[in-house]
C-alpha cells in the first residue's frame, strides 16, 4: 500500500523560501549545482522510504528540472508528479532578491507555463494545479481558461487547484463547482492545513466527499512546528508540549494530525534534509490518543492573524 506521505520541493530547489532554519539546514552554499545535489538527496531518501508522490511548481526555482533529471537517472517510473502553474520564479537565484515570484493566472500564462512544464516532465506530469487559486484573480470564473484546462484534463492529466490565505474554504468550494463538458474540472485540491491553521478542514472534507483528491501542504507551518523552530506563540508551545508527552518531535505530531484527517489523500513534507523526510514518514505509524486529539482545538490561531504573520515572514 502506498504511503500517504508526499514530498514537496518548494524549500530545497530554490535558494530562498519563507521556512525558518534555512541557514542551519542549507548553509550559505546555494548554487544551482549544490541545490540540485541536495534535491536529489531528499528525493533518494523519500523514494527509499516508500514515498511515491512529488510536488513541484514553475515558481519553485528549478524544481521541475531537478526532478526530471532525477527521474531520468533513477528510472523511478512509479513516482506520480504534481506540478503547478500561475506563479513565475523571478528571484534570479538570489537570497536577497526584492521579489522572488510573481502571480499570473491569465490564460496566456497557462499556455506558456504548461509548455515549459511538459518540456521538462513530458508524460510524467500526472497532476497540474492552479497555484494559489483565489476568488479575486478570476481564475475560478475564466471560461476560456477552463476550456484550456479541460483539454489538458481530457489528455489524461488531473487538473486541480492549490489554495492559500484565510479564505481557502471559499476557493475550494468555488473550484468544486466548476464543470466543463458536463464533468468536474478540478479534481485535486492542495491546501494549507496544520495545527495552527485548520480552517480549510470542512471544505477539504467536502472536496473529498465529492470525489476530489486532497493534498495537505505546509503541515509544519513554514517551520513554526519543528524542533528548535523558535516559535514562542501559545499554540506552537503547546504543540511542542504535547509532542514531548508522546515522545515524538513536534513535526511528527503535526504530520500525524494531518494524516488523522480521513479526507487527506497525501500529506506533503517540505523536506530540506533526509531527516525531515524520515520524520514525516514515521508519522504514519503514530496514533494520536484521545487526550491529544481533544487538546488540538486549543492550538488554533485566528486565520486572518495566521496568514498576516505568514505574509511577514522573511525569505531566507
Automatic annotation (TrEMBL):
Query: What is the protein's species of origin?
Result: Vallicoccus soli
Alphabetized InterPro entries for the sequence:
AKR2_Oxidoreductase, NAD(P)_OxRdtase_dom_sf, NADP_OxRdtase_dom
A Pfam family it matches: Aldo_ket_red
All copies of the NADP-dependent oxidoreductase domain together span 39-296
Q: What is this protein called?
A: Aldo/keto reductase
Amino acid at each position: 500500500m502506498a504511503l500517504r506521505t508526499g514530498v514537496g520541493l518548494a524549500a530545497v530547489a530554490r535558494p530562498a523560501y519563507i521556512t525558518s532554519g534555512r541557514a542551519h539546514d542549507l548553509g550559505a552554499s546555494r548554487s544551482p549545482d549544490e541545490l540540485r545535489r541536495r534535491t536529489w538527496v531528499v528525493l533518494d531518501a523519500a523514494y527509499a522510504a516508500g514515498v511515491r508522490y512529488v510536488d513541484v511548481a514553475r515558481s519553485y526555482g528549478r524544481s521541475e528540472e531537478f526532478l526530471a533529471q532525477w527521474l531520468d537517472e533513477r528510472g523511478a517510473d512509479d513516482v506520480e508528479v504534481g506540478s503547478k502553474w500561475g506563479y513565475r520564479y523571478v528571484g534570479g537565484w538570489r537570497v536577497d532578491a526584492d521579489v522572488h515570484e510573481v502571480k499570473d493566472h491569465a490564460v496566456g500564462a497557462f499556455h506558456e507555463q504548461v509548455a515549459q512544464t511538459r518540456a521538462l516532465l513530458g508524460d510524467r506530469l500526472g497532476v497540474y494545479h492552479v497555484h494559489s487559486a483565489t476568488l479575486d484573480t478570476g481564475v475560478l470564473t475564466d471560461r476560456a481558461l477552463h476550456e484550456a484546462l479541460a483539454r489538458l484534463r481530457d489528455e489524461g492529466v488531473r487538473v486541480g487547484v492549490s489554495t492559500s490565505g484565510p479564505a481557502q474554504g471559499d476557493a475550494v468550494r468555488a473550484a468544486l463547482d466548476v464543470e466543463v463538458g458536463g464533468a468536474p474540472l478540478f479534481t485535486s485540491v492542495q491546501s494549507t492545513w496544520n495545527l495552527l491553521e485548520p480552517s480549510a478542514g470542512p471544505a477539504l472534507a467536502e472536496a473529498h466527499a465529492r470525489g476530489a483528491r486532497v493534498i495537505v501542504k505546509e503541515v509544519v507551518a513554514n517551520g513554526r512546528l519543528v524542533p528548535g523552530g523558535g516559535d514562542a506563540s501559545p499554540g506552537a508551545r503547546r504543540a511542542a508540549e504535547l509532542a514531548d508527552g508522546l515522545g515524538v518531535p513536534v513535526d511528527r505530531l503535526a504530520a500525524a494530525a494531518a494524516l488523522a484527517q480521513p479526507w487527506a489523500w497525501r500529506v506533503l513534507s517540505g523536506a530540506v534534509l533526509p531527516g525531515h523526510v524520515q520524520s514525516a514518514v514515521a508519522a504514519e505509524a503514530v496514533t494520536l490518543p484521545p487526550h491529544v486529539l481533544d487538546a488540538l482545538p486549543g492550538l488554533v490561531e485566528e486565520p486572518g492573524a495566521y496568514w498576516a504573520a505568514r505574509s511577514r515572514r522573511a525569505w531566507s
